[in-house]
Design goal:
Layout: E1 2-6, E2 16-21, H1 33-46, E3 55-59, E4 67-72, H2 81-93, E5 102-106, H3 114-127, E6 149-153, H4 162-183, H5 191-202, E7 208-212, H6 214-219, H7 223-229, E8 237-244, E9 253-263, H8 283-297, E10 303-313, E11 324-327, E12 333-336, H9 343-356, E13 361-366, H10 371-376, E14 381-386, H11 388-401, E15 405-407, H12 412-417, E16 425-426, H13 435-444, E17 452-457, E18 463-464, E19 474-475, H14 480-492
Parallel strand pairs: 1-6, 2-4, 2-5, 5-6, 9-10, 9-13, 12-16, 13-17, 14-15
Antiparallel strand pairs: 3-4, 7-8, 8-10, 11-12, 14-17, 18-19
Helix pairs in contact: 2-3, 3-4, 4-8, 5-8, 7-9, 8-14, 9-13, 11-14
């Protein structure tokens, strides 16, 4: 699929033209005059200009060769980076089941930089080319348009958009890669399969790959991580990707992901309802691996390490029992009071590993707590950590990338709540209040004083439970864009 930026559509023959119409009632200013008038009429008579839905399409030529797709895109002034990719994705999704080969999108860049508009639109087109029904035997049910060329219309704007198109392509493909991995059923995406997927992805880049088995993890002292793996017959795997984009030792940024390829809750077993969705409890690991792939493809001038802590969490004769005490890689002891609070157990050893490898900035990403959904709903990722200056960097990177995040507090009193009577820490407070904060307070115990650390709880944003106009239900690749933007910002110095 080839992307090309143009200033107008004169002489272009298209299978489809995608045009935003805003809440004020006007279409994109760079759309052809006759198309703009038609789009505004369609939105006024048949559509909703508020939030990307519904999408109305009709024929715009006598022979029926060109389809016009009108996408309601909210207020013109609110058309930011996020809405740019949502508009593009919604428009291309309307072409599912079609035979469109050559299409154009009219981009409105009044509210955002033209380069950002192009990058975001490229991402959105690529997001729309992913579908969740990967194991249906009837391919017609999941037919994607055979797109060959996508024209991006930026009226009256000249410039070189190659970098924006490349980055949009890299990020879009990385998000879709992470979605595909998270969507796989747990019998087909075990920790071993995760390692294989990472190797395959990394083989197309300069990334160095290392996979630590249980013996290596044991030699490193990862007792907290291995305590989660004890109930499963599937071997645990720590997948490490390294990007060396500058001379010298150490890592400018470490990304640590929770990789529970299936989470039954262990001995503290979950209710049966919706347990099948716990295949996506490795979304954090998928996200950090995907982001590392983008850093390598962009040749970012920084050193970056991604650590994916992969295992299953199952009950069994060897499974960790509530009340057991284990020793983490940092040397701190942990009383496991709830085996369903396993994500934090694997993350603390991953963070310690990253710090020993020389990382001074660490971001961990995890579907950690259901409590974050209660606190923030389905739209925002919770962010905690220290110091505040680093949290501000992460929040700013998320905002620039078009992902919604929200900071939550983390006080010494929260840390005190995670202390055990018989060990250094307990992995669950047993209460219902402040669950997201207390999960982060536990992880904080593994963070050294001179490490800048941010915790991204994506349990609220990693999975859509229903279709949205710009994305089907299922995995969303949450936090990939934020981590790529953070890495790019650090690389700039």
């Amino acid at each position: 699929m080839h992307f090309r930026v143009v200033s107008d559509l004169e002489g272009e023959h298209l299978d489809a033209l995608i045009v935003p119409v805003f809440k004020e009632g006007d279409a994109a200013s760079n759309a052809p005059t006759d198309i703009r008038a038609t789009a505004e009429w369609v939105a006024r008579e048949h559509g909703d200009t508020n939030m990307f839905a519904p999408i109305t399409h009709l024929q715009t030529s006598g022979d029926g060769s060109t389809r016009l797709i009108v996408v309601g895109s909210g207020k013109r002034a609110d058309f930011d980076v996020a809405r740019a990719w949502q508009f593009a994705s919604a428009g291309v999704r309307a072409l599912w089941q079609s035979t469109a080969v050559r299409i154009a999108l009219c981009l409105e860049s009044d509210a955002i930089d033209a380069q950002e508009a192009v990058q975001s639109a490229v991402e959105g087109v690529i997001y729309a080319m992913w579908r969740p029904e990967s194991h249906r035997t009837t391919q017609k049910d999941r037919q994607l348009p055979p797109l060959d060329e996508v024209l991006l219309v930026i009226g009256g704007t000249s410039g070189d958009y190659d970098a924006a198109i490349s980055r949009g392509t890299f990020v879009g493909e990385a998000v879709n890669w992470s979605r595909g991995v998270a969507n796989e059923p747990a019998n087909l995406m075990t920790p071993t399969h995760m390692a294989q997927a990472a190797r395959e992805m990394a083989s197309h880049t300069s990334l160095k790959v290392e996979v630590l088995g249980e013996d290596e993890a044991r030699d490193l002292g990862m007792g907290s991580y291995l305590s989660v793996a004890r109930g499963s017959d599937e071997p645990a795997q720590v997948v490490v990707l390294r990007h060396h984009g500058r001379p010298g030792d150490g890592y400018d940024l470490a990304l640590v992901g929770k990789g529970i390829t299936f989470d039954s809750g262990g001995i503290s077993i979950k209710p049966a309802e919706e347990m099948h969705l716990m295949k996506y409890d490795m979304s954090g690991a998928a996200a950090v691996l995907a982001a590392a792939g983008v850093a390598a493809r962009m040749n970012l001038p920084l050193n970056l390490i991604a650590v994916a802590m992969c295992t299953e969490n199952l009950p069994g004769g060897h499974a960790t029992k509530p009340g057991d005490v284990v020793t983490s890689m940092s040397g701190k002891t942990v009383e496991v009071t709830n085996t369903d609070a396993e994500g934090r157990l694997v993350l603390i050893d991953g963070i310690t590993y990253a710090q020993r490898e020389g990382a001074k900035r660490v971001v961990d990403v995890a579907t950690l707590t259901g409590a974050v959904r209660v606190a923030l709903g389905r739209l925002y990722t919770g962010v905690l950590g220290r110091p505040q200056s680093f949290i501000d960097e992460v929040l700013a990177a998320a905002d620039r990338s078009g992902e919604r995040t929200w900071p939550l507090p983390l006080a010494d009193e929260h840390r005190e709540e995670m202390k055990s009577e018989i060990a250094d820490l307990r992995n669950s407070s047993g209460g219902r209040l402040g669950g997201t904060i207390l999960g982060a307070a536990f992880i904080d115990a593994a963070v050294e004083d001179d490490t800048a650390w941010a915790h991204l709880d994506i349990a609220s944003t990693a999975w859509y439970e229903d279709d949205r106009p710009f994305s089907p239900k299922g995995p969303q690749g949450a936090a990939v864009r934020t981590m790529v933007e953070l890495a790019a910002t650090i690389a700039k110095g």
